[in-house]
Write a structure and sequence with these properties.
heterodimer, A: 257 residues, alpha+beta, Outer Surface Protein A, domain 3, three-stranded antiparallel beta sheet, 14 helices, 53% helix, B: alpha/beta, TIM Barrel, eight-stranded parallel β-barrel, two-stranded antiparallel ribbon, globular
Amino acid sequence: MPKNNLKSFQEQFVGFINDNTPANDFFKDILPAGRIPNSQEALEVHRNGYIARLTEALGETFEGTWFIMGDDLFFSICEEYIKENKSKLYNLSDYGENFPNFLEQRRDMIAIPFVQDMARFDWMFKELFHEKQHISIPLNELQRIETEPNLSLILGNSVSLFHSQFSIYKIWSQRNHTDSEMNNINYELPEHLLWYKQNNEIFVKNLSSGQFDIISLLMSAKSVASVLEMINSENQNDLVSSFQIIGTTGIVAGLKY
Amino acid sequence: MIDSLQKQCNPGVGLRSTHFPYLETSPDTCLKWFEAVSENYMDSFGRPRIILNKIRERYPIALHGVSMNLLSTDGLNELYLQNLKLLIDEIEPFIISDHLCWTGTKPSNIHDLLPFPYTEESLKIVCQNIDQAQSKLGRNLVIENVSTYMTFKQSEYTEWDFLIEVSKRTDAKLLLDINNIYVSSANHSFDPINYINAIPAEIVSQVHLAGYTDMGDFLFDTHSKPVYPKVWELFKLFIKKAPNVPFMMEWDEDIPEFPILENEVKKAIEIWKNLHFKKGHKDA
């Protein structure tokens, strides 16, 4: 390595780790540790470490996905993902945002039709886990919507909705259990879920599809009056129960005109 | 010479999420402080940050980073410094440390403590970056030596002379990782005692202890085992000249139950007491 060339050294080093770019001139300046036979093997220590750390990060975030895929498939998919998706952020737990899309594009995932939904679920859980719990408005404040229906609800930042054609939450809840318990799950039941934080704990509430639609509309900043207009008379029960859920879960952080 | 009555034993451990449930019960420990990995809390406003604040109510905290990228030739990441500063303002750590290494080039992050040649060019870059970080954070940094698996023909300094020079030029103090010294000495065939003897006690603010893994061809810094006897010997040698330096145990893989980790710290306390605590003196 010529003097005044730390940048070039670092670029070649990263090139080797990310793309296995051969750099013969670069190798000759490296003195491998201990009995490591050559420079390339010494660099492999870091390349293997890179794959291992990112795989570990994906494993921590996508715990449910790992569970349904099994070790061998999950690790080999992770390795391919890591090769195609270089880490650019300093925070390892932010790695893997597009892992669900990566799984969707894989033809060999057809055998596990809900794998992408599970990955989305895992990512959503991770995001909510690190999210600060919002301060809920008091119930008497929330009751203003009865007399002022032109208000719209500001949902808190620690609230998420999740929908899948499959029983993702049921499967995810079994991730630390045995395969035989997994076999008892009918995974083809659709799920509509509301996630929220209370007392700094994450809670998941199963919703009916009607409740899910109503809360989704309210989350999209529409006024309460306009949401009421959109709901047909058949959904009156869902409407009442949706507002009950909104009241008890503390998912509203504010009101606005 | 520090009078033995003034000597303070300052043991700590690395805070790990697997121990959160145990620590939430607020048990009595033999520890005086905890070290938290900055990146695990900087961007988290959920449970990890809540637990860190709870522990901070009872113990001083040292913030230890792994991603500042002090040997970066692209300059430091402003967002990183900004988020670290927010955490510092909240936690008020007694030490802010990171490693003498680089972790990637823009836009890639390798998430590793990467080696570099100990040259004048490297020295200028690291000092420039430390100055930038210290000015942004409003605090002096503490810099840790890392384990390495290669050295470079171009190096103009030994690792310890390089570290001393960094401290001299930036006023940053050192975090001496005794395990890393031993691992690198075995990997690159130098005498670790020369390293320990060369480092002036007054520039060291903290000491790390950990266990390595013997990979056959080289020693690997895994933080997955108890401290090895040769590392204890080096620890003894250093704390003899730096009795008040805070020392702590790092354990990151195959993490044992908290009481087992604490027992490992108690070994260090015992070594400290045998060196510095004589009969007739008050308990340190």
